[in-house]
Each structure stands twice: as structure tokens, then as C-alpha cells.
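> example.struct
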């Protein structure tokens, strides 16, 4: 579209540009998010006309010039809404991951667990029966520039009195926290500060109603500046799940959106309490990287937290296709570890459901070298 519109403008056209909708998902989606997505896509086109097509802004034909989207460097925080009945099990999980409790909030019912790379906040709630993701913290090279960009695009943010920074609410009702809070430590009671582990959050997947997929995609592509998404489908026994995934240039941030028209799929089951009613997304997967996945698996077992079992034939297949040593294959099977080759590196990981939410899968992994 950028090259085509640039040619039209260079030929002297100075009239209006309109949008015609052929997408059935947009036709079925709520009108408000669709209209906002349409406006933002036109503004983004103007921005790309200057960046990609080198089309200068002319007198009488001004082009939209927001601050450039800074590179997203990673996740700084994960905030979970915790019903009291699940609190102990979730705290055991965080301790097994090497995260260390750092104290309670002075005013809000929030407990802070710290790692070297990111923090987890447990917000006690009596509104939900299940553990849910309340907000995600993002870090970037210039948070102020990003906030100015959001404002220019007409995307409102709001301040957060509890944890600081600015909160961006996406069309699917995801809460993204942008910008640091210089006084964050002062908001919490002082406690013990042992050295936490280097556990970090590297990927998140959300399930959302199909009508919000396009509007939600625009936030990550147009506003937050992630590269073009990869797409795919996953065939489950009860239907097909469509997946759209973005990854930052450095690979520190990966966001996946999943949707399905089949109520019996993993996405449909996760959305069943709210789909068609509140039109909200829900988090279905978190990916954490740790220092030592074997030691983590042992701590999880000691805490009584069961990981997802792996069928024995998986390891037979792994032995046939991967040049792993017998020692490593035995280690994998003993701790229910799975294996992938990601990029040029070996990746070992385990999976378990987050206590208090059978639809929220946690993947814990480590990049490491294996004997061949």
C-alpha cells in the first residue's frame, strides 16, 4: 500500500482516502475498536509514506509525523490477580522459579516478588475465581517517546497509583504498563533482599474473540512498532486455532494472539466465561527462561507442583531425530523436559498449568548446550 499510495500522491492527487471493508471479522467486531483501528491504520500509512517511500510532507499536504516507536527491550513486570484460595500455591511456584518476596505494598493488597530481570506482583482479589494476568510491564529505549507516540495516535493511557508508570488498555482489554516508576521501592514495605535468580519473562500468548484480532493486531504493529507478524494455524481435536505472533528485533519480547471459531478448542474453552459478553482477551501462556531448568524442575517437584507429563514415545522420537547423548535423553525423561531447536541454539523446557487456572499454561525453559 505504501508504494501504491506514494505513486498516487506523486501524480498530483490531493483528494480524500477512504477505507472499504472486505474483512468479515471487522464487520462483526464492535464498531468503536474498529473505527479506532481504521484511523490508526491511515495514520500509520502516512508515517510509512515518509519513512519507506521518502515522500516529503508538502504545504497543503501535511503528513503525520509521530515520534518513532522505540525498540521494545523486554518485559519488566507481570501482575497476577490472585484469589486468596490460590495464593499459597502461586507463591510456592514463584519460589521454585527463584523469585524472591520483597515485601507488601503500603496501601494496596499487592505483594512483590523480584528477579534480576523482572518482578511479579500478586494482587489479591475477591472478584475472580481463577488466577489471571492483570497487567504486563514493557521496557523500551525511550518510554517518554512511546507515550508521545500513543498520544499522537489518539490512544489514551492512564496513570497507575499502585505501581506507577502509564497503563495502555488495548482493544481486547489487555493492560500494558509503560515507563518506570522512580519511587517504586518506596511504595513497598522494606523486607529481605537476597539475590534473586535471573528468571525472565520472554513470551506471552493471549486468547481473544475473533472479532478483536485485527484491532488488537494494530496496537502491536502500528503503535508499538513490532515487525510484521508471522501467522499459522494449530489443528486441535475440536477445531482449528489461528495464531498471529510478533517478536521484537532482539527477540526479547514475543507476543502471540490466538483465536478460534470453535468453542471446543483450547482458545474457546479459555474464553467461554466472557466471549461474546465483555469481549475481553485472556492470557493462555507465559514463557519464562531460567538459569537451570533441571534444578527448577527439581524444586517444582519438591514443592508438589506437577509438570505436564510427556509420553514415552516422545523421547523415542527425539532419539531418532536429534543427536542428543543417552545421558541427556535420560535427563529429559526423568524431569519431563521437552526439546526444541530454536534458531541456532538448543532449548530445553517443561510445561505446567498455573495453580488456580487450568487454561493458563506456563513454559519454563533454558537455552543450553547438550552433549552430542
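> example.seq
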Amino acid at each position: 500500500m505504501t508504494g501504491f499510495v506514494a505513486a498516487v500522491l506523486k501524480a498530483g492527487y490531493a483528494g480524500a482516502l477512504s477505507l472499504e471493508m472486505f474483512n468479515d471479522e471487522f464487520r462483526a467486531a464492535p464498531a468503536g475498536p474498529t473505527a479506532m483501528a481504521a484511523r490508526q491504520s491511515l495514520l500509520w500509512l502516512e508515517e510509512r509514506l515518509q519513512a519507506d517511500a521518502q515522500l516529503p510532507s508538502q504545504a497543503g499536504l501535511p503528513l503525520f509525523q509521530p515520534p518513532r516507536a522505540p525498540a521494545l527491550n523486554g518485559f519488566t513486570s507481570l501482575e497476577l490477580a490472585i484469589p486468596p484460595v490460590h495464593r499459597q500455591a502461586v507463591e510456592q511456584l514463584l519460589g521454585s522459579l527463584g523469585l524472591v518476596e520483597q515485601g507488601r505494598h503500603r496501601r494496596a493488597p499487592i505483594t512483590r516478588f523480584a528477579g534480576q530481570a523482572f518482578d511479579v506482583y500478586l494482587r489479591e482479589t475477591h472478584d475472580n475465581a481463577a488466577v489471571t494476568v492483570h497487567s504486563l510491564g514493557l521496557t523500551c529505549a525511550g518510554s517518554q517517546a512511546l507515550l508521545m507516540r500513543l498520544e499522537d495516535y489518539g490512544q489514551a493511557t492512564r496513570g497507575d497509583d499502585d505501581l506507577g508508570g502509564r497503563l495502555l488498555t488495548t482493544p481486547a482489554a489487555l493492560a500494558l504498563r509503560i515507563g518506570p516508576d522512580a519511587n517504586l521501592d518506596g511504595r513497598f514495605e522494606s523486607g529481605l533482599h537476597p539475590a534473586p535468580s535471573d528468571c525472565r519473562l520472554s513470551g506471552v500468548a493471549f486468547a481473544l474473540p475473533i472479532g478483536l484480532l485485527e484491532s488488537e493486531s494494530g496496537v502491536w504493529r502500528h503503535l508499538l512498532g513490532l515487525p510484521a507478524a508471522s501467522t499459522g494455524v494449530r489443528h486441535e481435536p475440536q477445531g482449528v486455532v489461528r495464531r498471529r505472533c510478533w517478536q521484537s528485533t532482539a527477540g526479547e519480547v514475543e507476543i502471540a494472539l490466538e483465536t478460534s471459531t470453535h468453542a471446543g478448542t483450547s482458545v474457546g474453552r479459555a474464553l467461554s466465561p466472557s466471549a461474546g459478553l465483555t469481549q475481553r482477551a485472556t492470557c493462555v501462556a507465559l514463557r519464562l527462561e531460567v538459569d537451570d531448568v533441571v534444578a527448577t524442575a527439581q524444586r517444582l517437584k519438591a514443592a508438589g507442583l506437577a509438570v505436564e507429563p510427556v509420553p514415552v514415545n516422545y523421547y523415542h522420537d527425539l532419539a531418532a531425530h536429534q543427536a542428543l547423548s543417552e545421558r541427556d535423553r535420560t535427563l529429559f525423561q526423568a524431569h519431563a523436559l521437552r526439546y526444541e531447536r530454536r534458531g541456532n541454539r538448543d532449548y530445553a523446557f517443561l510445561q505446567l498449568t498455573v495453580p488456580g487456572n487450568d487454561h493458563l499454561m506456563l513454559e519454563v525453559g533454558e537455552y543450553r548446550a547438550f552433549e552430542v
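> remarks
The chain is about 25% helix and 30% strand.
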